[in-house]
Specification:
Number of helices: 26
Radius of gyration: 49 Å
Number of strands: 76
Oligomer: single chain
Distance between the termini: 59 Å
């Protein structure tokens, strides 16, 4: 046979597979070698090289780009005329470039094929050696559209390719996508690896352990479709499966139950039937494994899977390995790539269109803003050819398809006739927004645009367009006015260059004498002043710092607290009296005697409102932070002055020590001076701690006080005693003996004065921690400014000045009350604000009345024109518009104009017969007779769709670049955002999808109600028994059902991915009443299983990756094998426990025989991580995740591990029960294996065996017999309790051996619970080998 093909990568794959299947592995390997040799030989002869010249750019590229740019120019013109909205323009631009890019790709291929079929780039891409079409397209076609960092497409495509080189702009745009690609790749490998690990863990114990489980259940397989596109044909899905039922077509049996489906049979079946019932790992009834018949062929060699094949691991690897090829998340394209959604129908020849019967259409506006006919029901149309020798062709149309031609229209070859929508229009959409900004400055005018206010729950009002229409911006020069400016012109005024449009005024509130420094922006107005003419100010220096000392006439000295020449605010402290009457020598306790204070703070002090005395009880406090080992005295010890209390710290007075320490660290040492009396009985003395005792008080028989003391009972090292502490008294007068000075500016009732106040720095009862002493009270001079107009004082400040006095040879202190005003800077900060000029209207030393204008800032006009846009109303005016000559243009005509003043005209409109306007504009005036002059004002229309949010109002003024509206539109959710690895992970981990759809809980008929006020929708389903279920909709969910439509169980009512848990729950609840718990569980689980398999397949298919269904089924089987116990009944199972469905059903069957209450349960879907951690083997679970928790729980629950899977055996260090190790573990593993070895033993007479071996053999023989009932019952599930029961029975049985001569040996071993398992594994095998 000779096949004349160009053999590329795929053909090569098929060739190898065919060789392997038909001729075995040896021949196949030889074939591969020969192919390699041949390949190398020809590669050497051909000497294929690659150079830059091989990257040939198709010559048609230029013209293709030109036509695309022309199409986009038309689109831009339509946008400028207000025919389409910004969103429609954007969509159209992107679609245009997209189709151009695709067409160019096809042109690249055509160009290579026809001009240079042996081009090395072309050969590599198409043979599958290196590179693919999308890369070649970027090399010699165009790079195309790119996404920005947010994932939206930039409507500026990269028109060049890598051969021509990118411009700087294009390079920067393309680097966004490059960065995304790099990050994506890095994350993808990590995620993919972890997914594979979890998959291996969940499925590692699925091993083929039996030939046929004998199940009668099946799954139905049909081709996998996306709309009308077949993703996986039926023959591919059937290949290597086993039939579950006979297939009979027209009385002829095509295939019988349990037949293997090979390639030929699969194609035969595909031609005959739509769906087939096959056996599947999902329905296999083998316990904890899959049988050969349910699994079918091993895809490695194309024959029935071998016994002991670790199909779980194979499945995990098959699903995990392509994970790296899946994209993480492709970009959010903004609803553009629509090539997949619509199929274009073009005419194959010239002809005439004929509509079929029942073809009804309605006019709609497409995404590109064009009016088109949309088909409402399934129908067809025919194209009848002009040439007689051709047959007419009919095309079928689905609902929502768009027709571009009308009935009876003549069409030409390749004319676009229709866009056929895919049958399954389950396109989910989302709301998106786009801003529209103004292209020119001017005033806004609404035309056919109806705004309405909408209030949200917070009470904010948004203005939206109730009906779509045009929003016009009429051209003009818009000036932004500074804050506080008031216009001095009105609408209609004519202005020249330099005319004042608006002004701001700087006004003095208080009036007074002006102080104006040259070149300063500050103007001070003196409103009142006071000169202290009795007090002299002198400078003294102490400690290297100069201080200003105020000496008063009566000899008091004050320290000036503020620097002269600075401004101080109201209530600031100006000076402080220098006196040491209230200075203490140490720390202590302070107590008020009759003193009252007003509010204040620690820093400023508390102002004394009523005089009295301050009682001061001295004590010294040393604040230390040292280790307690450094303490030299004890708590309560009496120390003398000069004694060391802590290392390097000495007492300054005699007294009792109090030590405060925390966590072995000394905090404070307090020494309380006073006289200590130890021999006084507190009961007799009747003195309390803290009591102040006057001089002359008698305490004991011989103790009379000679001065004021405070009593304190203390616990000393020598016993309990009374400490009489000295008390100092400080007298405080009601008023300070310092004069206050003030002045009054009679005009405004304003006054400024220095008020003297006494301030105390400590609160009543406060302990002052100090050694050196402190100032208790201070007399201060405080600045007080007041005015009869209360609000003015807040703006006022005072200036402290020193005036030289020649007579007394000293300086005098003067306080000046000022109002400070700051001039505006004349800077061109706002280029849109006009020329700004500020004029000062006062001079230095001028006296001005209150309310006088100090300075005026003028906003001057830059160009001549007419004033517009001043709204009369309450609001401050922020903008002024001037219509300049540049904004106007005139058209002269001798025909009578068709337009009138005020009309809005779109460009290229006829304004008089034969005369069109070059720009969109508004008619301002029409003059003349016979010779008409039409004056127009330039304008720009913007189309606004209904529901858009308006940022501006009719008549508002806008600058260029201001936002006008926010267009709200529906865009197709690009399926790719929930694609790739994250979606696979979401499915396999059984997570609830983010925006899950609403599923019908029971079958019935839909009722859809639309509400008037807002666009909300209510869905009700009238179920078959007459009950009505309501389904509330979330705001962003779109309906998929129509009014009166019949829906089935778990059918989606809205768009979005379904939640597999919900599918399981709905089917379980639906069937549980009529079928019982077990059957309902099976139904629910099967629906969830099929859903998961199909969903995982569709993700891999979308990326072009083929994985056999059976791999996914093996994993899904592991996820859906458990149920959650709701009520244990009379069984030993606890509520909340996760148990295998078949295990519960066995126990329940036993219960129904004995008449006990059965367990009630709900089926659950576990994600792969949860399923791994809930596996029977705690060793396997611990090696996966949460090791400590798993092992702790296993220990607490006393679990047994039956070592059935692979990981457990590897960890323990035994052969794995799969592959070649399968026979060692055959039939239940350990027990049976030992049985086989032992049975051979005694018959092998050639070996001289020790009596122990024979004995042990007999013993184990009897043991294994006791287990035969277990072995026969393949479905028996060994849970932990059964395991424990068995191991206990062993001990009893083994003890019965003790009457033989070797009983002692056996019972010794019995102490070890695992004797029976360990024994067979070590000694027996080893000895047999040695022999």
């Amino acid at each position: 046979m000779f096949y004349n093909y160009t053999v590329d990568k795929n053909r090569l794959k098929k060739l190898m597979a065919w060789t392997y299947q038909n001729h075995g592995s040896a021949r196949c390997a030889q074939m591969a070698d020969d192919l390699k040799d041949m390949g190398f030989r020809f590669a050497t002869k051909a000497g294929v090289s690659i150079s830059v010249d091989d990257l040939t750019v198709p010559p048609a590229k230029r013209s293709m780009l030109d036509s695309a740019e022309q199409e986009i120019r038309v689109t831009e013109q339509r946008y400028a005329k207000g025919e389409i909205t910004e969103v429609e323009r954007f969509q159209k631009v992107i679609d245009t470039w997209n189709s151009t890019s695709e067409a160019l790709k096809d042109e690249v291929i055509r160009n290579f094929r026809e001009t240079d079929p042996l081009n090395s780039v072309y050969m590599m891409a198409f043979s599958g050696a290196r590179g693919n079409m999308s890369q070649v397209r970027q090399l010699v076609g165009m790079r195309g559209l790119m996404a920005n960092p947010q994932g939206e497409i930039i409507d500026l495509p990269i028109k060049t390719n890598f051969r021509e080189g990118l411009t700087v702009t294009e390079y920067v745009i393309s680097s966004y996508g490059a960065r995304k690609g790099l990050v994506d790749t890095a994350l993808r490998t990590a995620d993919s690896g972890y997914l594979t690990r979890r998959l291996v863990d969940v499925s590692q114990d699925v091993i083929v352990r039996e030939h046929d489980c004998g199940t009668k259940t099946f799954i139905t397989v049909s081709p996998m479709k996306d709309g009308d596109r077949i993703l996986i044909p039926l023959s591919d899905r059937l290949f290597g499966r086993v039939l579950a039922e006979d297939i009979v077509v027209d009385g002829e049996v095509i295939g019988k139950r349990n037949d293997y489906i090979d390639a030929e049979l699969s194609i035969t079946i595909e031609k005959a039937v739509e769906q087939v019932k096959v056996r599947s790992p999902l329905t296999c009834e083998a316990v904890r494994s899959v049988c050969q018949q349910c699994y079918g062929w091993s895809l490695a060699h194309g024959h029935l899977v071998d016994m002991g094949e670790a199909v779980g691991i194979i499945a995990a690897q098959s699903i995990g390995e392509p994970g790296t090829q899946l994209t993480m998340r492709t970009f959010h394209t903004g609803g553009v790539f629509t090539g997949e959604v619509v199929r274009q129908v073009k005419a194959n020849f010239d002809g005439v269109i004929r509509y079929g019967e029942g073809l009804s259409t309605r006019r709609i506006r497409t995404r590109h803003g064009e009016e088109r006919e949309q088909v409402e029901v399934n129908a067809e149309f025919t194209i009848i050819p002009d040439q007689k020798n051709k047959e007419p062709i009919s095309y079928s149309l689905t609902p929502s398809s768009l027709l571009f031609v009308s009935d009876g229209e003549k069409v030409t070859l390749d004319q676009l006739l229709a866009e056929v929508a895919t049958a399954k229009l389950q396109r989910s959409t989302e709301r998106a927004t786009k801003d529209v900004t103004s292209h020119l400055a001017g005033e806004v005018l609404f035309s056919q645009l109806v705004p309405e206010g909408k209030k949200d729950r917070q009470g904010n009002t948004t203005r939206i367009a109730q009906r779509g229409g045009l929003l016009w911006v009429l051209s003009g020069d818009v000036y932004n006015l500074p804050p506080g400016a008031e216009p001095v012109v009105k609408n209609g005024d004519e202005v020249e260059v330099g005319s004042v449009l608006a002004e701001t005024r700087l006004i003095s509130n208080s009036g007074g004498v002006v102080r104006l420094e040259p070149n300063s922006r500050e103007i001070d107005i003196v409103t009142a002043s006071v000169l202290l003419d009795q007090a002299q100010v002198r400078v003294e220096s102490s400690g290297g710092r100069e201080q200003f000392i105020i000496n008063t006439a009566d000899g008091q000295r004050f320290l000036l607290k503020t620097t002269p020449g600075t401004k101080v605010q109201n209530h600031a402290i100006v000076a402080e009296l220098i006196d040491d009457r209230y200075h203490t020598n140490s720390g202590g306790l302070i107590q008020y005697g009759g003193i009252e204070v007003s509010k204040g703070g620690r820093k400023q002090g508390y102002e004394i409102t009523k005089g009295g005395t301050i009682l001061w009880i001295p004590e010294e406090t040393h604040e230390v932070n040292k280790d307690s080992s450094l303490l030299q005295v004890e708590d309560g010890q009496y120390v003398e002055a000069g004694e060391e209390v802590v290392k390097d710290i000495f007492a300054q007075s005699s007294g009792v020590v109090e030590v405060i320490q925390k966590n072995e660290i000394l905090r404070e040492i307090i020494i309380k001076p006073g006289k200590l009396y130890l021999d006084i009985d507190p009961e007799i003395a009747k003195i309390e701690t803290g009591q102040v005792l006057n001089a002359g008080t008698q305490i004991g028989p011989e103790i009379v006080l000679d001065e004021l003391r405070m009593a304190e009972w203390v616990e000393t090292t020598e016993g309990y005693g009374l400490l009489l502490r000295p008390v100092q008294e400080f007298t405080v007068s009601d008023e300070p003996d310092v004069l206050s000075q003030g002045t009054i500016n009679t005009e405004g009732g304003r006054q400024i004065q220095l008020r003297s106040v006494q301030r105390i720095f400590y609160k009543d009862g406060e302990r002052v921690k100090s050694v050196d002493g402190c100032q208790l009270l201070s007399t201060q001079l405080v600045l007080e400014m007041s005015s009869s107009e209360s609000d003015i004082t807040t703006h006022l400040a005072a200036d402290i000045e020193l005036k030289p006095d020649e007579d007394a040879d000293c300086q005098r202190l003067q306080l000046v009350m000022l109002e400070t005003l700051v001039l505006r800077r004349d800077i061109e900060s706002d280029p849109l604000g006009g020329n700004i000029q500020t004029r000062v209207l006062v001079h230095d030393n001028q006296e001005i009345p209150p309310g006088a204008v100090i300075a005026r800032t003028e906003i001057q006009c830059k160009e001549a024109g007419q004033i517009r846009g001043i709204k009369s109303g309450i609001e401050a005016i922020r903008r002024i518009l001037i219509v300049r000559d540049a904004d106007l243009f005139s058209i002269t005509t001798d025909q009578k104009p068709k337009v009138k003043v005020g009309d809005l005209i779109i460009s290229d409109t006829e304004i008089a017969p034969g005369v069109t306007t070059p720009h969109s504009a508004q008619v301002v005036k029409i003059e003349g007779k016979g010779e008409y002059t039409v004056t127009l004002r330039q304008a720009r229309p913007y189309r606004v769709s209904a529901g858009a949010i308006l940022h501006i109002d009719d008549g508002d003024l806008v600058q260029r670049g201001d936002n006008l509206v926010l267009l709200v539109f529906e865009r197709t959710k690009t399926g790719d955002i929930i694609q790739g690895l994250p979606r696979i992970e979401e499915l396999l981990e059984g997570r609830k999808p983010k925006e899950a759809c609403i599923l019908a809980r029971k079958p019935g008929v839909c009722q859809v109600e639309y509400w008037e006020d807002n666009d909300s929708v209510d869905i009700k389903v009238i179920e078959d028994d007459g009950t009505v279920s309501e389904y509330p909709l979330l705001p962003n969910q779109n309906l998929l059902v129509t009014d009166g439509q019949r829906v089935g169980t778990a059918q989606p009512l809205t768009d979005g991915p379904a939640n597999p848990h919900e599918i399981l729950e709905i089917f379980f609840n639906y069937h549980v009443d009529d079928l019982g718990v077990y059957e309902a569980s099976l139904r629910g689980l099967q629906k969830a299983q099929i859903f998961l398999v199909d969903q995982v397949q569709s993700v891999y298919q979308s990326q072009g990756i083929d994985i056999s269904d059976k791999h996914i089924e093996v994993i899904v089987r592991q996820m859906t094998s458990k149920v959650r116990i709701d009520d244990g009944g009379d069984t030993t199972m606890l509520p909340g426990e996760l148990v295998e469905l078949r295990q519960v059903e066995q126990v329940n069957d036993a219960m129904s025989i004995t008449g006990g209450a059965t367990a009630r349960y709900t089926p659950v879907l576990l994600g792969i991580t949860k399923a791994s951690l809930n596996t029977d083997s705690f060793i396997s679970a611990a090696s996966f995740q949460e090791t400590t928790r798993v092992l702790t729980e296993a220990a607490i629950e006393g679990k047994s591990d039956w070592l059935r899977g692979l990981k457990e055996n590897v960890i323990i260090g035994r052969l794995i029960p799969a592959g070649t190790g399968y026979n060692a573990h055959e039939h239940g593993g350990a027990i049976a294996a030992s049985e086989a070895v032992l049975n051979e033993g005694p018959e092998d007479t050639g070996n001289v065996r020790s009596p122990y071996y024979t004995q042990a053999a007999e013993r184990r023989d009897s043991l294994s017999n006791r287990f035969t009932d277990l072995e026969d019952d393949e479905d028996m599930v060994l849970d932990d309790q059964t395991a424990r029961a068995i191991s206990q029975s062993e001990v009893l049985k083994m003890n019965s051996f003790s009457d033989t001569g070797f009983g002692g040996r056996v019972s010794e071993d019995d102490d070890d619970d695992d004797e029976f398992e360990d024994g067979y594994d070590d000694d027996d095998y080893d000895d047999d080998d040695d022999e």
